[in-house]
Amino acid sequence: MSDFVFEPAPQAAVAVRGTSALFPARRVYCVGRNYAAHAVEMGHDPNREPPFFFMKTPDALLPDGATFPYPPATSDVHHEIEMVVALSGGGVDVAEADALGLVFGYGVGIDFTRRDLQAEAKKLARPWEVGKAFDHAAPCGALARASEIGHPTSGAVTLDVNGARVQEGDLNQLIWTVPEMISGLSRLFELRPGDLIFTGTPSGVGPVRPGDRLEGAVAGVGTLSLAVG
């Protein structure tokens, strides 16, 4: 007999490439403005500043091949293609030299953003949740194990919408590296197995509309395909 007043929601999870195993998702962290060109297109200084973070909810994860339901209360939903880091270890005040030892693997994700709601929140100096943490806002493709692909530091990051290339960058353009992100996060939160980190998007972000088809990729890591419903 359950001690809960109603049945808990299923554990949020991400597929693991080449297996039937699932990666149980605990938290979804995101790094803001981690490519200089994207910082410029959003009207910010591209120089290297301390990283900042925001969060999405684990139940916002959406698998490869799914349909992203166009969300309510917005007319300006933007795509942001990113590499995702999945942790199988954790800690507090993790040294950069030890950070990659916490990594289970890597995937391809999209940080969907209700840009109009985010812009309004910024203008009023309010939190970003309504623009970033809405339902289905964190698609993530199957994870590739670090034990199989290593720890990529270069490789194309791309997104095509309806067959046209709209975003293109390279992992070697990240302002803050994966070890630096993990170490920085661990000074703010206790990291644990199951945490996911969306590492930032290259330039070229823009709107999606119902009927669009999105094809994202990170070279050496994987792909992510979605339809917009």
Automatic annotation (TrEMBL):
Domain of life: Bacteria
Signal peptide: none
Molecular-function GO terms, alphabetical: acetylpyruvate hydrolase activity; metal ion binding
InterPro entries in the record: Fumarylacetoacetase-like_C (IPR011234), Fumarylacetoacetase_C_sf (IPR036663)
Chain ranges of the Fumarylacetoacetase-like C-terminal domain: 28-225
Protein name: Fumarylacetoacetate hydrolase family protein
Record key words, sorted: Hydrolase, Metal-binding
Organism this protein belongs to: Chenggangzhangella methanolivorans
